[in-house]
Amino acid sequence: MSGAARTAICLLRCDLRTHDNQVLHWAQSNADFVIPLYCFDPRHYLGTHCYGFPKTGPHRLRFLLESVKDLRETLKKKGSTLVVRKGKPEDVVRDLITQLGSVSAVAFHEEATQEELDVEKGLCQVCSQHGVKIQTFWASTLYHRDDLPFRPIARLPDVYTHFRKAVESGAKVRPTLCMADQLKPLAPGVEEGCIPTMEDLGQKDPVTDPRTAFPCSGGETQALTRLQYYFWDTNLVASYKETRNGLVGMDYSTKFAPWLALGCISPRYIYEQIRKYEKERTANQSTYWVLFELLWRDYFRFVALKYGKRIFSLRGLQSKEVPWKKDLQLFDCWKEGKTGVPFVDANMRELAATGFMSNRGRQNVASFLTKDLGLDWRMGAEWFEYLLVDYDVCSNYGNWLYSAGIGNDPRDNRKFNMIKQGLDYDGNGDYIRLWVPELQGIKGADIHTPWALNSAALSQAGVTLGETYPQPVVTAPEWSRHINQGPVSTGKAGMGLV
User: Fold this and answer.
1) Could you identify which of 62, 111, 275, 320 might form a hypothetical disulfide with 116, taking C-beta atoms 3.0 to 4.6 angstroms apart as the criterion?
2) For the chain, what percentages of helix, strand and coil (3-state, to nearest 5) are there?
3) How confident is the model at residue 419 (pLDDT cuts 50, 70, 90)?
4) How many Cβ atoms from other residues are within 10 Å of residue 165's Cβ?
5) 3-state class of 483 per DSSP?
C-alpha cells in the first residue's frame, strides 16, 4: 500500500552517537517511524578465538553500558529513544520485522572485519526473505573509503607513510552531517527494553582504581565534553606532540580512543574542531599530530579491508614463518605484571587494574612479549581484546602484527629495548613506583634494573629478588648498555590516539 507508514530500523553498533550519524540522518528523511536499535550480542561475551579469554572485559563493558545509557538519554531529548535487546542482531531484526509488519528498511554502518561482516550477511538474508530494503553506509574512518586515491582497496600501500602522503595530498575529509534537533518517533507498539546490568552479561562492576589515567565515563556526552576540555578550555591540544608519550595522569594525551572505538565521537567532528582550533587559536605540529594519529586509525581499518582474515592469522600479512612459543607460564608472568622487568610490569598492572595503558606502554609490552619472550603474538592481542577499554579490532590486531614484525613495517627486526625505553619515558621511575609499589624504596633510575643492584642496596630498599619482587624472566644483552644511565632520547611516532 502506497500510503502505509514506513518504519526504518537503525541498527547501531560502533556508532553510539547522535552527531554525524549517517544512519540516523538517512532514516530521518526516508521513514515515518525510526527505531534506533542496539543489540547486546551474546557472541561478544564468549571466549576469544585462540586462547579463550573473555572477549569483553569489565572495564570495557562498563564503558559500553554507560555509552548505551547516554545515547538513550540523548535520543529521548530528541523525541526518540534507544531500543535495546539481548540477542543476535539478525534474530532481533527478524523479530521486529515480523512483529511490526511495516518495516520498509534496515540501515546500518558497515564494518571491516569478519565477525561483523558475518552479522551484516545475516541481516541481508533476513531482509531479503521479508522483502525489506537494506541501506548501508561507511562512516567509521576520517577519510571515506570511496574517496581514497587508490581503488580498489587491494591497491592500498603496505607502508603507512605512503598511505598518509597519498591521502593528505589526494583526498578530502567529508563534512560532518547536519542532524535534526528532533527525530521521528518509534513505531507504535515497540517497547524500548531494559539495558542489561554488568551481572546480566557475566561480569562484576570493576572497582575504579584511583591511579587510573582514564577516569572517564562512556557516552557521546562525555566524549564531547572531553574534546571541549582538551581543545578549548585548556589548550592542551597545542602541546600534544610533546606530551603524548606520557605515562601518568589524564592529560598527557587526548584520551579520545575509548569513545572513538564505540563511535561516541566522530573522527570527522574531531577533524573539524582541529581545523577550527587552528584557525582561531594556533596551528602547529601538535594539532597536526592529532590528525596524524587519526590517520593511523584509518590505515589499520583499511588494512583490515584489504587483507580480511589474514590480520588474525599466526603468520600475519607477510605469511611469515616464526617459531612462536606457547609457554603459558611465561605468558602468565607477562599478563600479571610479574616478569621482573619493572617497566613492563608497571604497564601490565595498569592495564589489569584500569583497562587502560599508554600508547608508549602498549608498544613496549607488545615488543617484550613477541621479541624478548618469543610468545605467540595472538596471546597478547587477545589479552588486550579482553582488557582494553578502547579495544578496536582493526587497531588492536594491526598494532600487534606491526609489533610482531609480520604486519606493515618496512623495518626488519624492530625491537624495543625495555631499559632504554623505561629510562627515556620514566627516567626517575615515578610511573614504576605508582604501579610496582614493592620497588618504591629504590631511588632514581636504578628502579628500572633492580637485578643490577648489589645485595646491600636491595636490602636498604626492602627488596628481596625472588621473594618481594621476581627475578627477570629474561634479560636481553642490549639492556646492559643502559644500566645506571639516565634518559637518552625521545621516541618515534605513535600509532593511533589513546
Assistant:
1) 111
2) 50, 5, 45
3) very high
4) 13
5) coil
> Domain boundary residue among 92, 123, 139?
139
Alpha-carbon gap, residue 436 to 440, rounded angstroms: 7
pLDDT for 316-326, tens place per residue?
999 999 999 99
- pLDDT tens digit string along 64-103? 999 999 999 999 999 999 999 999 999 999 999 999 999 9
Residue 491 pLDDT: 44
* pLDDT of 292 over the 70 cut: yes
> Domain residues for 13?
7-139
Q: Rounded mean pLDDT of 27-32? A: 97
Nearest-10 Cα torsion for 7, 11, 17, 21 = -70
Query: Does 152 sit behind a cis peptide bond, omega within 30 degrees of 0 on the bond before it?
Result: yes
Q: Would you say 137 and 23 are in contact if contact means Cβ atoms under 8 Å apart? A: yes
Number of domains, the chain: 2
Q: Which residues define the annotated binding site for FAD?
A: 240, 390-392
In a domain, 219, yes or no: no
Annotated binding site: 240, 390-392
Q: Which residues pair with 11 in a beta bridge?
A: 37, 108
The predicted-structure confidence for 210-226, as pLDDT tens digits, reads as follows 999 999 999 999 999 99
What's the DSSP call for residue 465? Answer: B
Q: Is residue 458 part of a domain?
A: yes
Say which DSSP state 52 is in: -
